[in-house]
Amino acid sequence: MTAIRIRHTTTYRFREPVQLSPHRLMLRPRESRELRLMSHILTITPDAVTKWAQDVFGNTVALINFPDTAPTLVIGSEADILLDAVDWPVFDIAASAISYPFRYSDEEWTDLGALTIAQYPDPGGQLQNWTRGFIRSNPTDTLSLLKDLNAGVAQHVRYQSREIEGTQSPQESLDRGWGSCRDFAVLFAESARKLGFGTRLVSGYLHDPSHQLLGSGDAGSTHAWAEVFLPGAGWVTFDPTNRSVGGRNLIPVAVARDISQCMPVSGSFFGPSDGFLSMGVTVSVTA
Hints:
This protein has five helices and 18 strands. It is an alpha+beta fold. The strands form five sheets. Strands 1, 3, 6, 17 and 18 form a five-stranded antiparallel beta sheet that branches. The chain has a five-stranded antiparallel beta sheet with strand order 14-13-12-11-15, covered by helices on one side. It has a four-stranded antiparallel beta sheet with strand order 4-5-2-16, with no helix packed on it. The longest helix has 15 residues, at 142-156.
């Protein structure tokens, strides 16, 4: 078990005081069997009214309202967690799902719903054809297929950090041959859905004490990956950026159908068109 402290600060600066719209924050680590949240402190400058809620996926969301104008907005989050994920997890997949293709039960199919449906158009079948290239035989081993797909994303797409907002479509990532961790995650998730798997996107943090993992600027950073639902095993973690399986170095904050639904900070302001000066983000993930 590893004790980890996460500090995440986002700073916005404006040319003059502006009226900040309500902001939506997803910064509180998501507790699970492998992750125990010991404490979480959220600090907002200027003074704001904070309300907490849970979204449809069970993520914890802070809803922030600002009564006064301000020239600067600083959002600080500090969390202490205990992470207990093994290096080489063993997944107890149900006998009915060991080989692909398989069929989810009626209840699973109903509950997974939109998580099995691709979210991006594929008019020429480019993504479909690329994805089916990982099927070695019919039937084939389910976990091996997903591991091959996970590694295949990293083989086809070169990692490149990107600070601008937004996410590339799977077709853009395939055509360009490069992308950030969120582009890798979306490409993997859409490909898995093309094969009929229930898949969700995950945003959170990467803990990298070795300084050797992609997507980490130092000992840790924000990160994105995906999870696939396999009967018997449940939600299995795949990080295509680092070709890894399991949550050994991953600290989830939010899960969602679409990556845009689990942004750490979202909101806007009312002011002059040239009122925005800069945004800065600092993240540290340390043992």
